[in-house]
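Thread: Newbie trying to understand structure tokens

Hi all, I'm a second-year student working on a class project, and my supervisor (Dr. K.) asked me to get a predicted structure for one chain before our next meeting. I've only ever worked with sequences, so writing a 3D structure as a token string is new to me. If someone could post the tokens and maybe explain what I'm looking at, I'd be very grateful. Here's the chain:
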Amino acid sequence: MSARSKSSSRWLQEHFSDAFVKQAKSKGWRSRAVFKLEEIDKREKLLRPGRVCLDLGAAPGAWSQYALRQVGRTGRVIATDILAMPPLAGLEFVRGDFREPEVFTAVLALCPERGVDVLLSDMAPNLSGVDAIDAPRSMHLAELALELAARVLKRDGTALIKVFQGAGFEALVRAARVQFETVKLLKPQASRARSSELYLLAKALVMV
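---
Reply by user tm_fold:
Sure, no problem. This is what the structure looks like when written as tokens:
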């Protein structure tokens, strides 16, 4: 069995026996990932009524679902993903790869001139099961999210970005510490223990 098929089989087995998956289904959330954001948000108070949020890699939409609830009618949630996503009431969605100029321009056009309050990124590449391939792809997405955060956030804005420990990880954290007053690394309970996944929380953008 290939590394990819072993990884896929293990994921499927974990997925269908996962308490967070069952809880997400019972509560109407689009994926278990919502519990990662919810835990961090409850602790760090990222999303509040009236705030503007940009959600990168949004599909299937659980983070956007949660953000919409938190920012309320006076806030906005802008989201983008390569994948199609069933609509959510109030969500401003751009489908496509934001690395492409036309998609990037469309996303920027939705962001207010005064800036975005919170940038969320739960982006991850399609995993091959080979760490030497997956790690650089994952790091590249995290680097792009951090670069975009510096461009679209308000001066005191916050970014929450999925990262994976490995090559380039320490450099990414150093770059975030140059641009933000406070940088934390968090592993919410809904993150699988065996995963090298962490969330980089960068608060108060200072380098504009």
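A couple of things are worth pointing out once you decode it. The helical segments are 3-16, 19-27, 34-44, 62-71, 101-110, 131-152, 169-179. The chain has a mean pLDDT of 88. Feel free to ask follow-ups in this thread.
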